[in-house]
Description:
Strand content: under 5%
Structural class: mainly alpha
Distance between the termini: 21 Å
Number of strands: 0
Number of helices: 11
Order of helices and strands: HHHHHHHHHHH
Radius of gyration: 18 Å
Amino acid sequence: MLAKTLPRLALSTLGLVLLAFFTWVMFRIIWPYTSGRTDIDFLLTKQHIIHLLHYRGAFYLHIFPALLVLAAGLTQFSGAILRRARGLHRWVGRVYAYSILLVCGPAGMLMAWYANGGPVAQSSFLVLSALWWWCTWVAWRAIRAGDIRRHGAWMLRSYALTLSAITLRLMQFGLASCTDIDPEEAYRLVAWPSWVMNFAVVEVLIRKTPWFARIYGK
């Protein structure tokens, strides 16, 4: 029994540590924008449209709640929390769902129209934002109907898309470190894989591994 439990515990701990680390990294990336300056970091690439009020609004409405959405994963997929702290799970889940459905998702769709990288990247982020919103909506409707298994599957899909904020940056970093590809070309290259890969991995978790059945039932 212990031989089976220890590997699962080690894997779960590693996952939480990595998620906490990348949440901290995203916090460090987002924090400078609290100054309200529009001539720093990512916004330096948006100087030609930064005067547009709707774009600025969408940008800030997207990045700040998105940090809460990312951090929510620390509590939402733990079997122990689901069994012993359901109130915490529900409260954090509401914050997650409302943030995406009412703020981050719609803001992301608007931002997608102005994404760097031209039509390839713009179409990717538009599909990503719409799919992110839809997965969260289906998960929300499922739990309202009392369908826990369906809720868990769609929340995992939603969170896989949330994590594209991390995989996008990891892929960009990898290309910048190993190649001399132009940053805008690199953005085009990673725009689709950064979330399609996550979606494929989570489908394997849901359909082919015992972990999902153990947490959410067969």
